[in-house]
Amino acid sequence: MEHITLLLGIVIVTALVFDFTNGFHDTANAMATTISTGALKPKTAVAMSAVLNLVGAFLSVEVAKTISGGIINEDGLKTEVIFAALVGAILWNLLTWLVGLPSSSSHALFGGLIGAAVMSMGWSSIDGGTVVTKILLPAVAAPLVAGIAAMLATRLTYKIGSRTDQKATAKGYRAGQIASAGLVSLAHGTNDAQKTMGIITLALITGGVLDPGANPPMWVIVSAGTAIALGTYLGGWRIIRTMGKGLTELAPQQGFAAQTSAATAILASSHIGFSLSTTQVCSGSVMGAGLGRKGGVVRWSTATRMFVAWGLTLPAAGLVGAGAEFLTKQGTWGVAVTAFLLIAGAATIWALSRRNSIDHTNVTDDDIDADTAAVPAEPAGVVTTAIAAVTPPPAGTVTPAGTVVDPDVKTTLSASSTAPSAEPARPATV
């Protein structure tokens, strides 16, 4: 076996940087609903998620094997192709993080890898069957399955709890949210950390360090798990805000249903080696939970931007990966230029993000400026107005009958009990 070369070392470091961006980009998947409903404080939530992401990285290597030996034909694959693929994935991750859109880090990686491989060796280097069955089909099916499951689970939880004290029920579901959020974090580490393991393993195979078909070495598993955990701990606050408040307003019951449905879908996919997008699964479950509550309304303007980002991820990252590969195959100077462009692009995006900083101190604020790329105000359209007309009034709304109604607390407070009654008219005297 050969020793690790300088270029291979650069690829490994770049892969861990991608893993780091994957961590803070996808923190929202596990913790956005938990933070938005107040079940956990923001810093506590991301710390718990980071630890469980690290643990999840050690549970399976099925997804890593899919990436390292399933999508790309390893024969003739060069190390610089993997470097170019990572450049496309990292820049797309950072760009969508800047605008607060929960796009798929997984599809960014696959897009960059496919684009770079096609530029280097042509379309014959891609295993189309694996791409369709283990990437594209799960990308369509998983969010739908998780969304429908979350919608049904939300309706069930409200039906079961309809005759119980709503304040006590909400406390119980907040505790359940903490457990289900931990399960999502564990599932995220099991699925997403393996993608970087697979990329590093693929690079080691192309560099002659590992034999084709080898499993990820232990040091690869540890480093990938650590990188994604560190990224998770920093918290992708911009995307957490979009997921927690931008799609729909969630009650604890909905948050619990959404997270449980998402975790089930992710763990099942990881077990059979499907490299699905945890972002798409969690977003689908949040929307399903929003629709599952009577009177709940999904903000479709935000959802539409997310759908567009999902559709653009594979081709956009692929184009950047192909462009980076065009440079890297020119030789050493091409690799240096590509590395410089990656660093310059990342620094520019970071500088732009500082103009409207979002962190744990303001991630749950309701006064959101559109320039923060988080939750723009959505005007009431025809659908929203129609739904509002047939749903109960929101908490604290005074009805025409003069009562204050709170749909989450089964009590009504008469307006006359707090306001002084009008003095009766005195009879006229002659």
Automatic annotation (TrEMBL):
Key words, A-Z: Membrane, Phosphate transport, Transmembrane, Transmembrane helix, Transport
Membrane topology (UniProt): Multi-pass membrane protein
Top-level taxon of the source organism: Bacteria
GO biological process terms held by the UniProt record: phosphate ion transmembrane transport
Segments crossing the lipid bilayer: 6-24, 45-61, 81-101, 108-126, 132-153, 196-214, 220-240, 307-327, 333-352
Recorded family membership: Belongs to the inorganic phosphate transporter (PiT) (TC 2.A.20) family.
Descriptive protein name: Phosphate transporter
Organism, scientific name: Streptomyces antnestii
